[in-house]
Design a protein that fits this description.
alpha/beta; seven-stranded parallel sheet; 7 helices; 7 strands; 45% helix; globular
Length: 216
Amino acid sequence: MAVLVGAVLVVLLTCLLFLIRLYIVLKSGPNYKPGTKGSVAVLIVAGSGGHTSEILRVMGCLSAAYTPRHYVIADTDRMSEEKICTLENLNRHSDRDPQFTICRIPRSREVHQSWSSSVISTLNALRFSLPLVFRLRPDMVLCNGPGTCVPLCAAGLLLGILGMKKVLIVYVESICRVQTLSLTGKILYPISDYFFVQWASLRDKYPKSIFLGRIV
């Protein structure tokens, strides 16, 4: 009985410490300024189709200080890699080695996939996201809605909880979302450091969000 009580206390203490660390990491976001002493390593989550087009428009507006750039796409995505390479070649300023990489992980959720099976596929994506994010250790994760960004943002958040590195989570909601957030947006809204929306109606509903007009 004493062993069981001790085990329960250990679990409760671990959960309490985890929640404390989570609170600290979430509150430290606005005060964290990556790039003050150099470049900003950014991990960009590219979905397929419209998600990729929107996130690449955002990347086209960023300065060369955001380097290296690590693009992550789903292993079933056959179009995004070509679009990424086209953008990077257009923005290349010298003959130096390209300052970007393209990584693939399993997709969290396919179109029309059931919610029950999505849980399993998301956990599988998380299994690949954790070692990837822990190896790259980006300063920032930039995403705009594909389900694949959920396990990647969770991995970045875990880096901070474990005290290894604070990773800024920057989310840009799709221009298509006018009245309500996407499912991914609803999941990441509480844990994002900067949450951008592109319609004033969303800014009014979600006070944490940042409205700068149309971004993409």
